[in-house]
Amino acid sequence: MKTLLIVYHTMTGGTLQMAQAAAAGAATEAAVRVKLLRAPEADAHDVLQADGYLFATPENLAAMSGLMKDFFDRCYYGALDRIEGRPYASLVCAGSDGSNAARQIERIATGWRLKAIAPVLIVCTHAQTPEDILRPKQIGAADLTRCAEIGAAMATGLVLGVF
Predict the structure, then answer these.
(1) What gap in Å lies between CA 68 and CA 57, rounded to an integer?
(2) Of 72, 90, 88, which Cα lies nearest the Cα of 18?
(3) Can you give the residue range of the structural domain that contains 40?
(4) Which listed residue, 45, 60, 66, 145, has the most CB atoms within 10 A of its CB?
(5) DSSP state at residue 81
(6) Residues 163 and 153 sit within 8 Å (Cβ to Cβ)
(7) Which residues of the chain have pLDDT under 50?
(8) DSSP H helices in the chain
């Protein structure tokens, strides 16, 4: 049995919807255990026990969320040199473009020597006003399907040993 760890943070629900869709896609593979954890609940033990990773974050002030950064800060050295070569993908729920949040995760994954299995999936909500930024998000069906496809691809790749 392989384990896929999905670590996420959300403030307005968009990133949670994306992470849940990825988890549902991964769950179609019976030989994969999906562990979906909020960033504050995940620790280095969870990282070490997983065979692959999906990191999901909102874009906050042109960066990954503070609680995702906290997750990486808490887990980085405990997993360093112990998880190299494992696969990962990332999901960003962005208000504008999400590219800096994606870049931050890519740099951390590079330090861990993880292997990206897909380009980062950025879903842009175009929330630009304070009201729109703070409003609960509803991610569209097409974007949720893309998240589910990444989860399914990750799970299938883990089972087949292609990553």
Answers:
(1) 7
(2) 90
(3) 2-160
(4) 60
(5) T
(6) no
(7) none
(8) 14-26, 44-49, 66-79, 99-112, 130-134, 141-160
- Tens of pLDDT, residues 93-122: 999 899 999 999 999 999 999 999 999 999
The predicted pLDDT at position 163 comes to: 86
Q: What is the CATH number of the domain that holds 94?
A: 3.40.50.360
CB 42 within 8 Å of CB 5: yes
Total domains in the fold of the chain: 1
Q: What is the pLDDT of residue 80?
A: 97
pLDDT of residue 107: 98
Tokens 């994954």 belong to: 109
CA-closest candidate to residue 110, choices 150, 69, 80:
80
